[in-house]
Amino acid sequence: MRPIRPGDRGPAVTEIRTVLAGLHLLAPTDEGRSDEFDAATERAVRAFQQSRGLSVDGRVGAETWRALEAARWRLGARTLYHAVPEPLTGEDVRTLQERLLEMGYDVGRADAIYGVRTSRAVAQFQREVGLTPDGACGPHTMNALRRLGRKVVGGRPQWLRESDAIRQSGPTLVGRTVVIDPGHGGTDPGVVVPDGPLRWTEADLVHDLASRLEGRLAASGVRVQLTRGPAPGECLPDTDRAQLANALGADVFISLHTDGHQNPAADGVATYHYGTDNGVTSATGERLAGLVQREIVARTGLRDCGTHAKAWDLLRLTRMPAVRVEVGYLTSPTDRGRLVDPRFRDRVVEAIVAAVQRMYFPIERDVPTGSIDVSELRAVVAAGTVVD
Ligand SMILES: [Zn+2]
User: Fold this and answer.
1) Whose C-alpha in 99, 128, 158, 228 is 20 to 30 A from the C-alpha of 3?
2) Tens digits of per-residue pLDDT, 366-379?
3) 3-state secondary structure of 137
4) Do domains 8-72 and 165-383 have the same CATH topology?
5) Is the model more confident about 304 or about 25?
């Protein structure tokens, strides 16, 4: 859909303004027509996007629209239950999940989707407070949650649970499934830079990176799947890319992009993982993002633009540790000059392989950044022994 933007008028704008007013981001008495996307509306949309970890552009595209739809629901306003096949989603579900997480219940990630795991966690909570464990959150369960207030806090239990699962699975890469997602493609070339007779697009470059990464990981005994080919007919939406990774039961999800900016001086690498402003974060995603970022900076010399938490669909809906790497700015002459060099792209790929490997090392046995020899890993696999 075409984003709804400043200057637009109509019933859709009225709806947007109503939700924003309900979130106290927009005073309902703001002057101007109630169906007009005016400056106050734009400010409110930006504040909303910021609070949800979305890209802040002041327009309402598909992703922001879905977030606004979900934001209508406040916890307690409706009964929540595990609906099949179309699960309930909304801000109330996320609030409930965050409460349960704080109390030490295993809801997985606070993804705002009322799935099997959330339902099971609710049932466990109900059993422990003496309610019928039906896994649905109605008025009685809400009362019990309110009575407990914020007294019961388990100290980031999800953090421990996720890291435990990874530690117990051992340090080997053999047999793991990694989904690599080259961004854009099809009708969407991503960042495009005319450069002499060669016209580089982000879509082409990241596909090349993805194929190289696929080769390296496969040589280490990893099952690899790419979300798209080199020239797909259409551009796959991020929700489909996340679903593909979930359907494959992937252990790790890596999305590859390059950045762009109107200022050619902007350069460097940044890595994103799932997280919101409320301090909710995917601990393993955050750890993987840190490792990818540090390895790339150490091995390539790209400027370190840090790691950041975002609630993008791609990161929110994937059920495994997921990161999105923006490997340099195609609009920066310096970064571009490096990215078009295949040897440089190989260094980027080695850095990502090293980061994935390090994620499976127990933290106390982790190695210094830049120190894993990726070719050695391959030799060990070829010799038929497990890396330990
Ligand atoms: Zn991109």
Assistant:
1) 228
2) 667 777 776 666 55
3) strand
4) no
5) 304
